[in-house]
């Protein structure tokens, strides 16, 4: 398998898998691991879509939780290429398909209303006059709503998922009300919400939320997750996610 000069092969899930990463382009964050662990996925079969897929980390992680078919959509060609090669390296081409393109086109190009589950780790930061964009365009696109907005993500997710299917997002707490409002606007009823805290007793800095297409109102607040112990080591819960211990 070809690796570019700035790329490396990193381990995923207790050395069970490998993923191509580059500090000059993209390296997945803990948010992808949290979302992959949080979202419901059918174990035996089904179709699962991941939007803003980056280097394919979420489809790769979910492939260990389901025997279903996975599709990832990524707009940046370099990241798409990294994802394709990672899928090939892990011998998962029969189960994971990567698509290069704008997520807003996915309902037409990939399939409208055919997915059992849709996930997305979208850009977190809105564009405004004070936006401090990263000098690296790959990071700027991944972090800021340059090529897509939160509404684009929610609307597209609703179009892709079947009635009764599930959609899950990871985001920041300051966008929670926006997310809930948009989910309900596009017929995704919030059903599960979980707050992630850097340490116990600290404010949450991440949220995980899952909704059902045309579901009935019944939101459950799950127990919070703490990422680090006081000595900055991972908590037992995070070690289980990261290393399958």
Question: What key attributes describe this structure?
Answer:
single chain, nine-stranded mixed β-sheet, alpha/beta, two-stranded antiparallel sheet
- Based on secondary structure, the structural category is alpha/beta
Total number of strands: 11
| Distinct helical segment count | 8
N/C terminus separation: 29 Å
Tell me about the biggest sheet?
9 strands, mixed
**Element order: H for helix, E for strand:** EEHEHEHEHEHHEHEEEEH
Helix content: 25-40%
Mean pLDDT: 91
User: Spans of 5+ residues with little confidence (pLDDT < 50)?
Assistant: none
Oligomeric state: single chain
How large, in whole angstroms, is the Cα Rg? 17 Å
Quick recap:
With 245 residues, the protein is of the alpha/beta class. It has helices at residues 30-38, 57-62, 77-89, 106-109, 137-143, 150-160, 176-185, 236-243, and strands at 8-12, 17-21, 47-51, 69-74, 96-100, 115-120, 161-171, 188-199, 206-213, 220-221, 225-228. Strand 4, helix 3 (77-89) and strand 5 (96-100) form a beta-alpha-beta unit.
